[in-house]
Predict the 3D structure of the following.
Amino acid sequence: MSRIALLGCGGFIGSHFLDAFLLDPDVRIEGWDWTPAKILPHLTNPNFRFHSGDIYSQPDLEALLSRCDVVVSLAAICNPSQYNTKALDVIDSNFIQARKIADLCAKLGKWLIQFSTSEVYGQTLAHWTGAGDSNPALYEMGEEETPLLLGPIASQRWSYACAKQLLERYVYALHKEKGLYFTLIRPFNFLGPRMDFLPGRDGDGLPRVLACFTSSLLDRKPLPLVDGGGARRTFLAVEEAVAALRLMLERPGLARNQIFNLGNPANETTIRGLAESMRKAAADLTGDATYLSLPLVDVTAEEFYGEGYADSDRRMPRIDKALRLLDWEPRQGLPEILHRTLEYAFRIHGR
Ligand SMILES: NC(=O)c1ccc[n+]([C@@H]2O[C@H](COP(=O)([O-])OP(=O)(O)OC[C@H]3O[C@@H](n4cnc5c(N)ncnc54)[C@H](O)[C@@H]3O)[C@@H](O)[C@H]2O)c1
């Protein structure tokens, strides 16, 4: 039997982790989050125990972690609209608080699977050198060899990437100096149901791009494209990311003390391309072609996110390490992922 501590279990990835892992009767999960709103069906599962409230204020946290085999840490503020507007909170959440879990794991001799971000790579070498994108060595991102190139301090948007990078360096130092077993995961834009919230429906504020476009489609409003929507991203089905986690847990000897990119290089598109694909998915799903003509409107990053926002030009993962060590290969194409994701949103939130 394996016992897993899941920090941030009530969020997007955490909810999919529970869906998959609680199918296994030999798994026991202790989970922590502010709220269980996205994971209500699991609360009655005898193999899952939910602890609500702030993770770092739980008096029994150390005792409970000491009884688990592995600690999976998802908990973080990871919403781009806060990187430049609430940088203190972002740094606190992604480094100052998160390092406490790493310290505990080192002290207790527990394997820490820490979620980082593909944003640690920052801008591509192609961007900084102005060399264009004819040479993959200038834009592909590999775990061991690619430099992590963030922007200037006044561009506060890099607070998140920088805090995650420092957390990665801290975890690595704990490994070298205190023998911590670790795995660092750099997600490249996971997609699927239950990401963030839909403003005015089940939350307020500015969610990540998938929920932002979903919200526009449901309301039949224009889809906002920040700075023209030219930034390029790859997209991975969240269920395939969770499958990679399962393979890591099955192969600790190979997964420990590694950094893994998790992404799907075959699903690269611009943010404009994502908006167009989502309009198409909505039209296919509903049989209503008018979704195809919803306008895409340009807004500047400053108008949309406020002062100090910038975006990375491109995030193209190399995933050969996950293939080699875990035998993991993503297969779901972007249209299929978007269809499933929007099908869920339209079913839950109506048209
Ligand atoms: N989803 C992606 O594509 C993606 C991309 C890059 C990085 N990541 C990383 O993966 C992790 C999980 O991402 P997600 O998409 O599931 O985010 P999410 O916001 O949906 O989930 C994070 C969860 O952590 C909880 N949490 C944060 N601080 C807490 C605290 N102090 N006490 C209790 N609960 C707390 C939140 O309530 C939330 O439910 C994060 O570390 C994020 O930086 C995700």
In short: The longest helix spans residues 87-108. Residues 8, 10-14, 32-34, 54-56, 74-76, 78, 93, 115, 117-118, 187, 189-190 surround nicotinamide-adenine-dinucleotide (CB under 6 Å). The chain has a mean pLDDT of 96. The two ends are 44 Å apart (CA to CA).
